[in-house]
Amino acid sequence: MEFGSRRTYTTMPSNLRSSRLLLISLLLLLFYSTTLLRRPTTPNLVSPPPCDLFSGRWVYTPETPKPLYDETCPFHRNAWNCLKNRRENMGVINSWRWVPDGCGLSRIDPTRFLGRMRNKNIGFVGDSLNENFVVSLLCILRVADPSAVKWKKKKAWRGAYFPKFNVTVAYHRSVLLAKYNREANEDGVKGAYRVDVDVPADEWINVTSFYDVLVFNSGHWWGYDKFPKETPLVFYRKGKPIHPPLDILQGFEVVLQHMVSYIQRQVPAKTLKLWRLQSPRHFYGGDWNQNGSCLLDKPLDKDQLDLWFDPRNNGVNKEARRINQIIKSELQTTEIRLLDLTHLSEYRADAHPAIWLGKQDAVAIWGQDCMHWCLPGVPDTWVDILAELILSNSKTE
Fold first, then answer.
1. 326 closest CA partner among 247, 382, 394
2. Measured between alpha carbons, how far is 277 from 329 in angstroms, rounded to an integer?
3. Domain Trichome birefringence-like N-terminal, which positions (predicted)?
4. What is the pTM assigned to this prediction?
5. What is the pLDDT of residue 213?
6. Quick one: 113 exposed, middle or buried, by C-beta within 10 A (0-12, 13-18, 19+)?
């Protein structure tokens, strides 16, 4: 009897079947975890952006602790000592606190700061707004070392030595940064000012290696109110007049190029180099020599700032932003860090000495001071920011 052909079946080994089941299970688990259970990235896993200390708002906080110093500080300049000169509203002026966007700003701790700066020196070079700045810093640091003494070595205009910490802080007055002097006409009458755009001024050319931190500025003297057309600035390079002649802002740009180049070449690499941008003026109704005034009792609102300071409005306070544009352009490829105190200071039209100048006839002679700042006052906030930048830099060294 013939039977049909038999089919044979092979069975899968049990170990291979188990492996396949395990692989399928893993694939299903992977699909489940990457689709059904997917979650957005949590914010705390993302590094926060660096804090911008220069952008923020002023907040009125009457409970703010009193300033760290008063009218008895021996480093005061009389015209800025608004407590001694009995300027109105000093309590209110110092009740406004700068709050940066997205982060906090602590008040400087003078003892901690000087401790971190032990055996180091801080120098300021520039015009009287840097002097305004350094007076605030000197008075604040004296809280930590009352034995501090005045220091005017190395052609410093103003300064102090803090023996407890072996720290020197000083200001070198150099309003144009470049060397300049008054020239006499053929008849012996003094006329134009010669500016050697490629030669740093004697007041700071040989002292930069002494400092571990340097804060530069220039800008307030680059205007026709300081150098009118009757006694202009005449610019020289390599000892010869520049042709065609430069106007005052063109001259500033060329001077800045040369001074920045010198700083990059000659100032030691270890030195922290900062450039403070313009401190804004707040003359209302005219310039300083045209009965301009700043008798305001509160900071400006944000929507008022462009009206006061935008160069397109051609107001009397327009030079700060215009000068800043030149500085920012020149420094953008350098290691010199910007200390951009302009924006936060633009608000504070209420915080100048104004008519409280310490001398009875000062206003009649010079007009109101709507350029410098009362001390204590806004420059104390500058000091808080400067200290934060210096100490942050020291952590990365």
1. 247
2. 12
3. 50-103
4. 0.86
5. 98
6. buried
**Does the pLDDT value for residue 16 go beyond 80?**
no
DSSP helix/strand/coil, 36: helix
**To the nearest whole number, what is the mean pLDDT of the chain?**
89
Task: Compute CA 304 distance to the chain's CA centroid, rounded to the nearest angstrom.
Answer: 22
Question: How far is 315 from 334, CA to CA, in rounded Å?
Answer: 32
Q: For residue 211, give Cα distances in angstroms to 120, 190, 251, 268, 271.
A: 7, 36, 28, 9, 7
Q: What is the pLDDT of residue 396?
A: 65
Q: Is the pLDDT of residue 175 over 70?
A: yes
Contacts for 90-95: CB closer than 8 Å, 24+ residues apart:
90/374, 90/376, 92/297, 92/298, 92/350, 93/350, 93/351, 93/374, 93/377, 94/64, 94/66, 94/67, 94/376, 94/377, 94/380, 95/60, 95/61, 95/62, 95/64
Interior/surface letters 179-203, b for 16+ CB within 10 angstroms, e for the rest: bbeeeeeeeeeeebbebbbbbbbeb
Q: Which tokens go with 18?
A: 């188990």
Tokens of 198: 């490629």
Copy the structure tokens of residue 392.
């942050």
The two structure tokens encoding residue 349 = 């039209």
- Rounded to whole angstroms, the Cα distance separating 147 from 354 reads 32
Looking at the predicted structure, is the pLDDT value of residue 217 above 90?
A: yes
pLDDT at 394: 80
Q: Which amino acid is at 53?
A: L
In the structure, what pLDDT confidence band is assigned to residue 231 with cuts at 50, 70 and 90? very high
Q: Which residues pair with 354 in a beta bridge?
A: 369
The strand pairing partners of 241, in sequence order, are 236
Is residue 52 helix, strand or coil? strand
| Spatial distance between the Cα atoms of 86 and 70, rounded to a whole number of angstroms | 12
**DSSP per residue, 220-287:** TTSSTTTS-TTS-EEEEETTEE-SSPP-HHHHHHHHHHHHHHHHHHHS-TTSEEEEE-PPPP--BSS-
